[in-house]
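Continuing the series of single-chain predictions for the mutant panel. This is the parent chain; the variants come on the following pages.
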Amino acid sequence: MKTTFLVAAIAAGMTLAATAEACEGNPPRMEMPAFEELDINSDGAVTSDEIEAVIQTRAAARFAQTDTNGDGALSVEEMVARADAARQERAAGRPAEQIEKADTNGDGLLQADELAAHAEDRGEGRGPDRMFERADSDDNGSLSAEEFAEAQSRMEDRGGRRPHGQRGDH
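Parent structure:
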């Protein structure tokens, strides 16, 4: 019973934290805090009051970090700046991870052959051929306008995409 309550309390707390971050202009991030962080009084058990205290502390820290002029209120500019900074941090990590995974010669840079080999390892090299084979319904080695339109329609249906060049109302 206590375990069920603890799990439910942590899940609720993480949901509240994610909601607070979303309101601050950041996408939800579900980071589970360490047990030691939740066990504020270090008694080897976590109470709902301790979970709530951690959530409030984290929310207050995010608010203070976003409130760059220290006036106790968040302006549109401060919230946009916070969202932009978070976006830049996330964007900076992606290329570094890609280079780390694909850099076979260890020079910290990606050469075209390393990038191509990485794409092949991930199965990306098969895409065009496999897509063509699926679209060529009469197996004649070429696509008619009808076969192309049918393939395009299937892709749009599967991905909820619009035909190339069409934009929705923004």
